[in-house]
Write a structure and sequence with these properties.
Elements lengths: L3 H11 L3 H14 L1 H12 L10 E5 L5 H9 L4 E6 L2 H13 L6 E5 L11 E7 L8 H11 E12 L29 H10 L3 E8 L2 H20 L3 H25 L7 E7 L2
Parallel strand pairs: 1-2, 1-4, 2-3, 4-5
Antiparallel strand pairs: 5-7, 6-7
């Protein structure tokens, strides 16, 4: 099913006031397991030493959730969010201006297949973006060019072990329920070699969304999205659904982010420019 129209509907609901927008971010931070993993790695990078003011690129900034969180983790950093959806760029600009963060958090339209700002950023974050881009190696090359010396790229993306909720392989494959994906996920070896070819050194990848995390994702994200895709009446039902399932999902998320996984449906990848 198409995920973007549902995200747009949710955005309309929560964009009415800055308070609702912050509340929306808080909900996403709690419900989205990938956010738990991303924030864990961002905090681990907090003590990296860079010369001058830290500059961060949020590559595929969407609602601005991760730009907002990074502005709190890296309190003196300048953050730029880029996205191909012009309406989200306008929306994020308005929100960050309304809360007084527009002096160090900015947004602009950009296509990652053509966007480069050589030797500019100490860190690039890309969350659930690369599975949407066919020319991934071109984008990895652009990321490498845009990073400054010793910069780091942090990627969150589905793995090829069912990351887009694919159930079978080969001719019997059932494609993921999110139709906007151009690939069903990356293998660790696949994405590692692509990043090395782009010029990166010291690439580290680990699985996320182990067995418990995958259960949490289905309960907290997949089933609600399927319900909302069938009828808008489920916007009324959804708060009661989460009232019942939320505590269980939080426990599963805590376990998943604190355990190591020999396999999983998500990947976190860190790659360094030397």
């Amino acid at each position: 099913m198409e995920y973007d129209p549902i995200k747009s509907q949710l955005g309309i609901v929560f964009n009415r006031t800055p308070f609702l927008r912050k509340f929306f971010y808080a909900l996403l931070d709690l419900l989205l397991l990938r956010a738990w993993h991303v924030y864990k790695d961002l905090r681990s990078l907090k003590n990296l030493t860079f010369s001058g003011k830290i500059r961060i690129l949020d590559a595929g900034s969407g609602f601005g959730q991760y730009s907002y969180r990074m502005s709190r983790i890296f309190k003196d950093a300048f953050i730029k969010g880029v996205d191909v959806k012009q309406e989200q760029i306008v929306d994020c600009k308005q929100f960050f201006t309304s809360i007084g963060l527009n002096d160090r958090v900015n947004f602009e339209y950009a296509d990652l297949t053509t966007f480069t700002e050589p030797d500019t950023y100490n860190m690039i974050l890309s969350v659930d973006v690369m599975e949407h881009i066919e020319e991934d190696e071109l984008v990895f090359g652009n990321f490498y060019k845009s990073l400054s010396e010793n910069g780091v790229l942090l990627i969150s993306t589905p793995s090829d072990q069912g990351g887009s909720d694919v159930h079978d392989q080969g001719k019997n494959a059932v494609h993921g329920f999110i139709e906007e994906h151009v690939r069903d996920g990356y293998g660790i070896e696949d994405i590692t070699q692509k990043l090395y070819r782009a010029g990166f050194a010291n690439v580290n990848a680990r699985y996320t969304y182990g067995q418990l995390g995958s259960i949490s994702w289905r309960i907290s994200m997949k089933y609600p999205i399927l319900m909302l895709g069938k009828s808008k009446i489920f916007f009324i039902v959804l708060p009661f659904y989460y009232l019942l399932t939320f505590p269980f999902c939080i426990i599963l998320n805590i376990l998943d982010v604190n355990l190591s996984h020999s396999k999983g449906t998500g990947l976190i990848v860190k790659a360094y420019k030397k």
